[in-house]
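Put briefly, the fold is written as integer tokens. The lines below illustrate.
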Amino acid sequence: MTTSADAVDGTSSMWDGGWHRLAKRLVSPNQGMRPHVMTAIDLIVVHSISLPPGEFGGGAVQQLFTNQLDWDAHPYFQSIRGLQVSSHFFIDRAGALWQFVDCDQRAWHAGQSSYRGRSQCNDDSIGIELEGLEGLPFEPAQYSALAALCRDITLRYPIQHVAGHEHIAPGRKQDPGPGFDWYHLQQSLNWPPDRFPEAFRPAP
């Protein structure tokens, strides 16, 4: 995909097509083409994930996104056995950045969803998973990596909205949850408050 943002200084140094040059690349088979007729990729969706829930490190998230997870390695894994999902990016607790899907392609992160008057958010969004658990705080290194990644994404894509999985699939998903500091992210990015979920916009 070529966009008008390709002309922005710094794009070529940060991106190799839809791959971020500073991310550890681990290609997921769980992806597909974006619709040929669609609006711009203008939404970033923030998620949280840990496998097993509340346990960090160990590589289980990376294994899940690449269909390499040993379903018998932990009792919890039986409840998600056979699940085929992916996200464009994953940021671990130390702030390390992984990428699984070319951002020009459709990752399988949102599921049934709707936001800014559009359904099927996988079609025109970029998904970022943070290693964490709903309700628990995230690490400063993760916020720093997330803000830097969001800025880099805007070099190539016309992002106008940032939301959580809980906002695009209310009642079905609850991540990243109350432990995620939307105010901190907005202030770090210095983006207009109306790009963020209404419930978390800073007071005027």
In short: The helical segments are 11-14, 60-65, 140-156, 165-168, 182-189. The two ends are 37 Å apart (CA to CA).
